[in-house]
Amino acid sequence: MTYTNFSLETDSDGIALITWDMPKRSMNVINALVMEEWETIIDRVASDENIKGAVITSAKKTFGAGADLTMMQAMLAEFEKQKAKGGDGEAAAKLLFENTFRLNQLLRKQETSGKPWVAAINGLALGGCFEITLACHARVMVDDPAAKVGLPEVKVGLFPGAGGTQRVPRLIHTQEALQFLLQGRNFDSSKAKKLGLISEVAPAGELVATAKKMILDGLSPVQPWDQKGFRLPGGQVYSAAGFQLFPPANAIYRRETYDNYPAARAIMKCVYEGLLLPFDTAIKVESRYFTEVLQTTEASMMIRSLFGSLQALNKGARRPMDVKPSGIKTVGVLGAGFMGAGIAYVTAKAGINVVLLDRDMEATEKGKSYTAGLMDKAIGRRRATPEDKQAILDLIKTTTDYGDLATCDLVVEAVFEDSEVKKSVTEQAEAHMKPSAIFASNTSTIPITSLAKNSKRPKSFIGIHFFSPVDKMMLTEIIMAKRTGDKALAMALDYVGAIKKTPIVVNDSRGFYVNRCVLRYMSEAYNMVIEGIPAPMIETVAKMAGMPIGPLSLNDETAIDLSHKIMHQTIRDMGEKAVEPQHMELVDNLVENHGRLGRKNLKGFYDYPAKPKKKHLWAGLKDLYPQQDADEVDIQEIKNRFHATIALEAARCVEEGVVVDVREADIGSILGFGFAPFTGGAISYIDGMGSAAFVDMCKKLQKKYGKQFKPNKLLLQMAKENENFYDRFNPYGEQKQVA
Question: Where does the pLDDT of residue 20 fall: very low under 50, low under 70, confident under 90, or very high at 90 and above?
């Protein structure tokens, strides 16, 4: 029998080698046809007396990437269709459950087939594909640092729904299982074997042979949990060990998630309830929770943004298709300070030659030493070798001579945030750059169009806004000036792809997109401080709202004196009305009267004592304004204010044409500053609530707190029909025009 996605060959020892190789795909995924063929293979192995056991492996570089989330989106679409027909939706929910339970049934059939199964994991095995291996009686993993196993579904609003929440805590200690499932981390072969998630590690050339030998050596075809007398590795739920684990585990879950993620909550329930039940009942409970989570707004929005949109942007959704790939070989970096050094590092790490230029060799060598330091850390963590370090350092050429930029395909300017300094280096660089080269300015505050006036070839001038620290932050904001051409955009996107960052493309605006949203977040915190809302409550409720860091702490990190400079510069550029007077008064007071500049001088909204003491809010903060009684402050209203002020700014950016693809508004808000990932991003937050409900909430906040919550014209139009952004500005097809 022939299969579309698999091949099956039986050797002279009676062992079936099943090779998974989906046509026209770079990675194997689980879809409806795969499940159909897999069931046929299970039946064949079980019924053929000549087959003693089976080994499953992949013909691709990876084992598999998990379930095809587009299949799940199709299941949800069918659910909504059936729900519309069925009134109360009971029949639709039943159909959804049956669809989600299908893989669970298949894997249970596999592990109870009476024949031993071994997974030969030759590379990355994630999600449902790793769950297939967990339903095998043993797992052999290739000895390769690039090979990882994991169940990362929680990161896109789901959880392992094909037995993962049941097999993992029956294989390893419950505490370690909960961490593995809730964090969605991937483990290499060494860590996976140490935990007990895999059985053996083998060199690539011996992987399949090692798997076959396990069967020939008498591998049991019965899973441990199906054997009489099986004991859970972490102890029973209702035992001393269970009572020491689950109450603190629940507290940690609440502390880390504030119960914002239905999938994480479901993992806790699945593990707790499942370990109290027989395995067959437990996987049914798991599928019921999976069906429930799949219907949540959070899952829908997270899948759309953190799977669909993120993949599309990483694959170049915004790249001009008629421009040939750039083939970037050498990148010049102007400025070897913290940002420039970080840009040089990620560029060299991608295998691209770097010309790192600054005013003197001492500065450039210091910038290069930043790469050496990062590589030393990687070596210490066994993520790199001394040879890797030297290879990357060899790619970075330090210089003070602008003539060395002559070979560069792209020059990235990362000098001090001063228009005159940037003008000078632009002119000097362009005097030596080849005609085909592109010039990119890294700036967070200065409009790109104004900087492009310093260029003699504005079509080849573009903005690339990196976020700090460059080596850790995954987002880059590509800014189009008024005259930027397609070639410059294409090269910028090719470069960002090469250094493995996620790009969003925005049109020029003061603060661009991400910083406009971030400033609104901090600005609303200023309002709350002035209103007398206790600072600890501001910070804590921001985290409860899903933000990774409180706005006051964030302002300390970005520097209060920088906010001070930006405010005064904005007044000089745009007049007194451009900055809220009370905000100016607060920041002036902090910087000029109290010398509180932020983390940089260990004094900001927080104090930063010497270790081992931890940072704490400045005690004098409560004396600046009369304080409200914390018991009378509405926590939900604070959450709404933080979410709404950011989402409103995102909506304004869409209306103004700063953001032209709503996917980028969502991804930019999540990757740029961590906007509540469970919402799917700033625009999906509005769509998830509904534009009519969002506008209604904003009007109430406007009446109580001020004009910053006034809905813009676009939102008012959309609210009339409760229209959502992904329909009106459909990134997958034709867009409706803004009236």
Answer: very high
Q: How many domains does the chain have?
A: 3
If asked whether residues 484 and 553 sit together in one domain, one would say no
Q: Starting at the edge strand that comes first in sequence, how are the strands of the sheet with 396-399 ordered?
A: 396-399, 353-357, 330-334, 410-413, 438-441, 461-466, 475-480, 502-507
Flag whether 575 is in a domain: no
Strands (E), 40-198: 53-58, 117-121, 125-126, 138-142, 149-150, 186-187
Of the candidates 28, 686, 678, the one whose C-alpha atom is nearest the C-alpha of residue 305 is 678
Write the pLDDT tens digit of every residue in 378-431.
Answer: 999 888 999 999 999 999 999 999 999 999 999 999 998 888 999 999 999 999
What is the DSSP track for 452-494? HTT-S-GGGEEEEEE-SSTTT--EEEEEE-TT--HHHHHHHHH
Active site residue 583: no
The reply to whether 211 and 77 lie within a common domain is yes
**pLDDT for res 87:** 61
Map 106-137 to HEC letters. Answer: HHHHHHCCCCCEEEEECCCEEHHHHHHHHCCC
Provide the strand spans (E) within 305-358: 330-334, 353-357
Q: Could you say which of 137, 173, 432, 465 is catalytic?
A: 465
Tokens matching residue 203: 């060199």
Do 627 and 728 have their domain in common?
A: yes
Is the domain of 464 the same as that of 551? Answer: no
Q: Give the Å distances, CA to CA, from 57 to 26, 122, 398.
A: 15, 7, 47
Own/partner long-range contacts of 185-188 (Cβ < 8 Å, ≥24 apart)? 185/150, 185/152, 186/124, 186/126, 186/148, 186/149, 186/150, 186/152, 187/148, 187/149, 187/150, 188/145, 188/147, 188/148
Residue 164 CB-half CA count within 13 A:
32
What's the confidence (pLDDT) of residue 252?
Answer: 94
Where are the alpha helices (H) located in 436-592, listed in sequence order? 448-452, 486-498, 514-531, 535-544, 551-558, 560-574, 581-588
**Are residues 424 and 389 located together in one domain of the fold?**
yes
Question: How far apart, in whole angstroms, are the C-alpha atoms of residue 324 and residue 328?
Answer: 12
Residue 270 — φ and ψ, nearest 5°? Answer: -60, -45
- How far, in Å, CA of 301 to CA of 721, rounded? 21
CATH of residue 723? 1.10.1040.50
User: Is there a contact between 555 and 598 (Cβ–Cβ < 8 Å)?
Assistant: yes
Gap between the Cα atoms of 331 and 348, Å rounded? 9
Taking CA atoms, 321 is separated from 316, 440, 461, 491, 512, in Å, by: 9, 21, 19, 12, 24
Q: Please compute, for residue 344, the number of CA atoms within 13 A of its CA located in the half-sphere on the CB side.
A: 37
Contact at 8 Å (CB) between 195 and 141?
no
* 534: containing domain: 513-559+598-739
Segment holding 424, helix H or strand E: helix 419-430
Two tokens, residue 678: 């469970």
Pairing verdict, β 461-466 and 438-441: parallel
Are 266 and 374 in a shared domain? no
Read off the pTM.
0.91
Instruction: Give the E-state strand segments of 562-664 in sequence order.
Output: 606-607, 616-617
CA atoms within 13 A on the CB side of 734: 2
Calpha distance 435→437 (Å, rounded): 6
Q: Per residue in 470-529, pLDDT tens?
A: 999 999 999 999 999 999 999 999 999 999 999 999 999 988 999 999 999 999 999 999
Q: Is the peptide bond before 612 cis (omega within 30 degrees of 0)?
A: yes
Nearest alpha carbon to residue 141 among 211, 194, 229, 232: 211
171 sits in which H/E element: helix 164-171
**CA separation for the pair 489, 475 (Å, rounded):** 16
Q: Are residues 453 and 521 in the same domain?
A: no
Burial class from Cβ neighbours inside 10 Å (0-12, 13-18, 19+) for residue 662 reads buried
